[in-house]
Amino acid sequence: MTRAWFPAALCLLSVLYAWSARGFESGFIADPVGPRAFPYAIGVCLAVTAAVLVFQTLGEGKREREPAPNALGRHAVFVASLVVYANALDVVGYIPGTTALATVTVFLFRGPLGRGLAVSLVVSILIFAVFVLVLRVPLPGA
Amino acid sequence: MLEGLFLALTPMNLMLAAAGALIGTLVGMLPGIGPINAIALLIPFTLAVDLPPASVLILLAAIYYGSQYGNSISTILLNIPGTASATVTAIDGYALTKKGEAESALATSALASFFGGTVSIAGLAFLSPVLSRAALGFGPAEYFALMVLAMVLLSTLSGGSTVRAIGSALIGLALATVGFDPNSAVPRYTFGQLRLLDGIDFVVLTIGLFAVSEVLLAMADPSRASEPPAVSRPVLPEWLSTLPTMIRGTVVGFFVGVLPGAGGTVASFAAYAVEKKLHPRLGSGDARGVAAPEAANNAAATGAMIPLLSLGVPGSGTTAVLLGALLAIGIEPGPLFFSAHPELFWALCASMVAGNAALLALNLPLVHLFVKILRVPPWCLQTLVVMLSTVAVYAVNRSTFDIVVMTVAGIAGYGLRRHGFPLAPVVLGFVLGGLMEKSLRRAMAISGGGWEIVYSSPLAIGIWVLAGAVLTAPLWLKPNDG
Fold it and tell me: Is this complex's ipTM strictly greater than 0.90?
């Protein structure tokens, strides 16, 4: 796939960003700029920059460097596990939740699962002890 | 003066400096804690022990320098910067680690921090009254111009594609607009999420952009996750070659640091940009790329003490926390501080030297030990990065939603890096965005909506001219590699 899709998407996003700013209303007379002007300016500048990049990239004619086989699948599993972790952390507690997330990461990096699980558990307990007992930063399940 | 200096050199105070430097380093190494939080977390302990004010100052200064260095360790070894200024160190620091020169990078960081911190104390001691008056000359229009200059400096001098760097800075500015508008309290780009009303947290964004994207890149390209080559020993001549860089970084850092606001961040970026101009190879793993921001950052920390002590105005988050500690021990900074407490002022100066010296003496021998973390297998190191990143992000606001934001930032960082967009300008734009918009709107409110205020003072004009010169520099200057 050509690399130009990325700046093109960025251009589209920046137009949407600037367009969304139309709803920011402010009734302050003492604030002549208001909450809209800055996002408008950024959106327009970013859209122009991204458009320049689209033409630059098309001119270069480079193709996107292919990632390793199965990279997309591993990315999807990793991102999904982070989202699940975020939603389950308060329910399952820090140590079990983090051990599970870390073990999935070990699996994704093709590490040894048994040792990976042990390392994940020990490091989770260590982090929990340092944050909760030493630094007094509460973690779920404390 | 001598009374204050001798006060810092008692065995008890030297021991406190060493203890503070060590504790600060250990706490600062934890990503997400960072220097500000490290000091805030450790202040209750320092106040709980009944120490004289000078000893408390020494302990706090040592903790501060220690935590700053600890933050550099996680930045250089794991690419997890906990502060905006550390993101600059990450560029060459992590590249050096990948080249097998982590030990050299850490040693350079320690030496540059010591150099910047110590030399700038002379500036603090002798230039305080003059510089505090000069800092007062910076109004909102001048601040706006300064922020634009910082963006221009980084975008044009950071190497690679200038257009991409400008794009990155604009993305950072856009991200800074998320949350309540500070002037009108209108929510912007929160998509109905209450948890975005306060905006995106800096630590959450940077850990996502740098650490999570690094994990994603390692998955896409397994060679990235392979063990770095054998670690080379630091060499004295290499350190000496960075001395001119340290001097430049210290000068830039100190004078920029005096300005209240994002002084330390702008200082690090500006020092790096100056160095990049002189040595275009920076960015691919050069010790000077570590020395410049580290010296500038520590010099800026000293410079930030000037408005704090002479005006009672904390110029950064860390000095704000320090102000709280000073007030807690009965010291009130302000215009009368120098005449009312000269011995404390000199004790403070001496405490900074002692803290820096203790840090250097403790950490140079430990560099070899810190680097051992890289010997762990890649699967283990990446897992460690994920675990530290998630706990750091959670600890900021105790919110699991931040982990989702970090994940989104990680995906965005991965996309940006794969398409050649540098990440440092994103961070600079994000950090300066709020201040930039606030300065512009304040200036416009003063002028009643007239744009001429932006270039109405000689100082503002000078900054705009400098920004224009930097922007057009590639057209009339041919860089020479050194």
Answer: yes
